[in-house]
Amino acid sequence: DRLGNVFLSLNRMEEAAPLLEEALALRLEHCEKVSPDVAVSMQSLASLAGSSGRGSEALELFKKSLAMHRVTVDSDDPRLANILLNLGAHRLLMGVETKKAQQDLLECLEIRQANYPEDSVEVATVMLVLAVSYLDRGDVVTGFPLLEKAAATVDKLQGENGFSDVIAVFSSAILMDKLKATDKARELYQQMENKSRSLLGKDHPVVAFGQHQFALFLSRNGERQLAIEKLEEVLRVYRESFGVNNPNVARRLNDLARAQRDVGDTDAAKESMYKAQRIFGQVEENYGKATYRANVLHHSISLHILSALEFNSGNKEKGLELICNAGKLLVKN
């Protein structure tokens, strides 16, 4: 199991799979069928399935592992916290059952706070994932305090203030934006991007999250070409981090298409929207019905955008067909 997880961390799935499957078979042979050891193997196989793009299979394995942990370990056992963190993060990644994901993470946080110091990396990790889940849905009031605490812990452990500086600048940028102090907000968003890239590197998903917020700000304030460049960079990181068919990629393609449309690049906007359509069309098959339902509104929005683009290009019948399909999606789901 440990060797399989090493290969899994290196993204060497073909070598990880037989080792993790053998570990589960050995544990089923030599341990109780319902035991923490079997639950750990299920958790490893769930991680493998998730990393291989089999989101629905991963979700079911994580759920089975959690159920087995609940009946075989104490309610404050760190092993229970580990599976809750993995399950919550996976739900968020799939864009499904957000409230359940946050419940998983809050329970995980409570267990880790009972087992580890408040300023430990174990506690900070959960706070960071929870914070991103709130911020991604616009809940700044809940998300930022968690993010600030996590950042302070990371900086304390590393002996520097880099992460806290990033969060402080990010929160100030959002505040200035809300106060309509556009020039100051832009300056702060740029500082946030520079600091986060310097601290975490240009390929980190947290950096891409910040860039996405910066890009939306730029697009709202007329700098759409620069917004397009940043959204394309966000998409590159999301594809590398989450997979090319992840629904989060399709949602960012919606943002990119809007910006492309607003600068008059209809062909590029249509191309982005048809890419989004292909991803949304595969979500139910790749991630399951629940994940698709969680993304159906975004699918419908992409059809609305594409419909308007086709109408404006003179393809009225195609535009009408797309807008009708958007309505049918919402009624069906």
Q: What is the H/E string?
A: HHHHHHHHHHHHHHHH
> Over all CA atoms, what is the radius of gyration?
22 Å
Main beta sheet, described? none
Estimated helix fraction: over 70%
> What amount of the residues lies in strands?
under 5%
Overall geometry: globular
Question: How would you state the average pLDDT, rounded?
Answer: 88
Low-pLDDT stretches: none
Detailed description of the structure:
This protein has helices at residues 2-9, 13-30, 36-51, 55-72, 78-94, 98-115, 121-135, 140-158, 162-178, 182-200, 205-220, 224-242, 247-262, 266-287, 289-312, 316-332. It has 16 helices and no strands. The model has no long low-confidence stretch (mean pLDDT 88). The protein has 333 residues and is an all-alpha fold. It is globular, with a radius of gyration of 22 Å.
Task: Summarize the SSE layout with pairings.
Blueprint: H1 2-9, H2 13-30, H3 36-51, H4 55-72, H5 78-94, H6 98-115, H7 121-135, H8 140-158, H9 162-178, H10 182-200, H11 205-220, H12 224-242, H13 247-262, H14 266-287, H15 289-312, H16 316-332
Helix pairs in contact: 1-2, 2-3, 3-4, 3-5, 4-5, 5-6, 6-7, 7-8, 8-9, 9-10, 10-11, 11-12, 12-13, 13-14, 13-15, 14-15, 15-16
